[in-house]
Amino acid sequence: MRFAFTQEQLSIRDSVRALLKRECPPARVREAWATADGRVPGLWSQLAELGVPGLLAPEDEGGLGMTELELVLVAEEGGRFAAPEPIGDTAAVAVPLLRDTSGPPRARWLRALATGEATATVALDDAPYVMGADTADVLILQRGDELHAVERANASLEAHPSIDGSRRPFRVGWTASAATLIAHGPEGRRALTDAQDRGAVVTAAELVGLARQMIDVTVAYVKARHQFGKPVGSFQAVKHHLADAHIAVEMSAPAVYRAAWSLAHRAPDASVHASTAKALASDAATLAARKALQCHGAIGYAFENDLHMWMKRAWALAAAWGDAAWHRERVAKVLLSTGGN
Amino acid sequence: MDLTYSAAEQAFRQEARAWLEANVPREAMPSGDTAEGFALHRHWERKLFEARWAVVSWPKEYGGREATLMEWLIFEEEYYRAGGPQRIAQNGIFLLAPTLFHFGTDEQKARILPRMAGAEDLWAQGWSEPNAGSDLAGIQSRAVRDEARGGWRLSGQKAWCTRGAFCDWLFGLFRSDPVAERHRGLTYFLVPLRAKGVTVRPVGRLDGDAGFADVFLDDVFVPDRDVLGKVHDGWNVAMATASSERGLTLRSPGRFVATASRLVELYRRESARREVDPTLRDAVVRAWMEAEAYSLYTLQTIAKLDGGGAIGPEASVNKVFWSEMDVRLHDTAMRLLGPHAELADEAWTKGFQFALAGPIYAGTNEIQRNVVAERLLGLPR
After folding, report:
1. What would the pLDDT profile of B314-363 be if each residue is shown by its tens digit?
2. How close B317 gets to chain A, by Cα (Å)?
3. N or C, which end of chain A has less CB nearby within 10 Å?
4. What is the overall mean pLDDT for chain B?
């Protein structure tokens, strides 16, 4: 038993962090809100140079053959910088889904996604919107126990703008065919569960990064802002808000790392672990957003302040891939059922 | 990252589980915070010691097994899983002993530790006073030098001493230099509670047990050999190991994981019997997830310690989390029990009342949140 990342894993995280710090500062995220695709120009290809899209792809498909453990560390950085890039949908969900299935889309898309030449968006279950469907090359969609990969050109899109200007939700009309079928039947259901778990865990990791960032910027602010002749961060009421947020994040991060390990090792409880991670991280990030805003006071409510970009991403991701209550109910079905006893 | 247990860890778990299954009393013991229960618990502590399960992480010469931190954690999991009795020895073995290992002389260790492990001497804390609670450095109890006899004369009052009415010894801080700055003039003393000049007055707790005591000291002589660490350096001696206890040993995850499992059982039982508040389903899972989170956070901490790290102010993160989680776990049980919760013999109700003390003892959570904000987040004092 050893609950710690390796130096190699941490150095992958550090290089992604350095790249995002340089190429994805808040000003670039703000610019992305106003661009046609909501993305930071050139950032995906820079992430691809580090191997991010293909972390989970086999080496002979242009990937790095790594695991969810490396992926959550990278996703946490993506969250910290509110990177408006499809790390979750493409790298964490679409790539391993195609890797593990044998339908026609594997040959068509796996290498292109793993190398960063193409991106994917994923909408499973009853997700009403497909994020970034206008810029993704391929849309991964579900119909019953069938999973399909639909080329963007073959889908009809209807935009529904998000409060987070770099997220672009669409309602999508599409037609299934033999050529788009990734998996179905028992294989489809298994692939669906894996995809849900991976989507939940990678989103939980992004939420941990967002929460850490909101705490960091708020700590900096309350140290600098003076009232009554003192930094407002010296007041106990402010300290306790931030302590609560910090404790919630510290207690949720290990659950995310454990879930990543369980996915990587195909542990029997992986779905329960994934749901535990997402529920804890959603609540922690929502709390951190609330505390960050309150500790900023009026300036945090101003559109010109960057805080709202992290908050809105946190709100969106807390609800994406199942919100906290949805995941607790998913665990309840396993934990509390009396039928089996 | 490797989240599987090694063969040695699994073997350790099996050995602990087998012994506990064979030896943990089937009938619940009376509270160790009563005179009758304390005597029975002392007997249980001796039984643990004789089988070398009382202090698994200690050196063998003092009755331990030299278990790793991970093995200690496994033992705790098994202990609470088996429904093991409360540990009346805990304040000695978890709070005083680490300080003794760090600051004690060889003579002190040889004299004190085996008797502590074997429950021949049970220890009470003597930190708080009527005017020194959260502001612990406000201690007023005095230690006056007695050069002729080679020791100190202690006077004053210690308050909220857990099981102080039944324990044999007390450890605590006394003001040995009346003029020094308040953190500097304190000395750490070990005080026999049967000594001349000591008066112990039991104080009833919220749940009715005489679990607390006021300890009055009137010119009590303590020889030099019962000073722990350097004279006037008591604050540093007390604080050096305080955070590791608050953070890890005092409340290991096994206790809460076991409580969460019992809560799940309670939910199954009650919801099979009647319509329960539909929001309780969510509350039970939430509490269960929090116990999981604390368990995983602790595994991460142990990996840090194994890698040469130390626990400092991070301990305050633990303390706030476990104490408030424990309240939520028990509060959820109270809601599940509905009108049965008020019955005096309901174990959950006893646990609920005890859980409410968690955010107060071992440093109030208000103080812990200040520590988190100032020492981990870097906010100004």
Report:
1. 999 999 999 999 999 999 999 999 999 999 999 999 999 999 999 999 89
2. 6
3. C
4. 95
Q: Where are the domains of chain A?
A: 187-335
Question: Which of B134, B248, B285, B297 would best serve as a mutation to test chain A binding (most A beta carbons within 10 A)?
Answer: B285
Chain B, residues 261-290, CB within 8 A of chain A, namely 264, 267-268, 271-272, 281-282, 284-286, 288-290
| Residue A202 to chain B, least CA–CA distance (Å) | 17
Phi and psi angles of residue B344, each rounded to the nearest 5 degrees, phi first:
-65, -25
pTM of the model: 0.97
ipTM of the complex: 0.96
Cβ proximity of A48 and A87 under 8 Å: no
pLDDT tens-place string over residues B229-271: 999 999 999 988 777 666 677 789 999 999 999 999 999 999 9
User: What pLDDT was estimated at residue A339?
Assistant: 56
B346 is catalytic: no
Superfamily of domain A187-335: Butyryl-CoA Dehydrogenase, subunit A, domain 3 (1.20.140.10)
Helical segments of chain B, H only? 7-23, 35-50, 69-81, 90, 97-103, 106-117, 234-240, 242-244, 253-273, 279-306, 314-337, 347-355, 365-371
Chain B residue nearest residue A325, CA to CA: B282
User: Nearest CA of chain A to the CA of B311: how many Å?
Assistant: 14
Q: B252 is written with which tokens?
A: 């290991």
* Beta-carbon separation of B1 and A6 below 8 A: yes
**Residue given tokens 């000049």 in the structure block:** B197
Q: What domains lie within chain B, and their CATH numbers?
A: 7-117 (1.10.540.10), 123-232 (2.40.110.10), 241-376 (1.20.140.10)
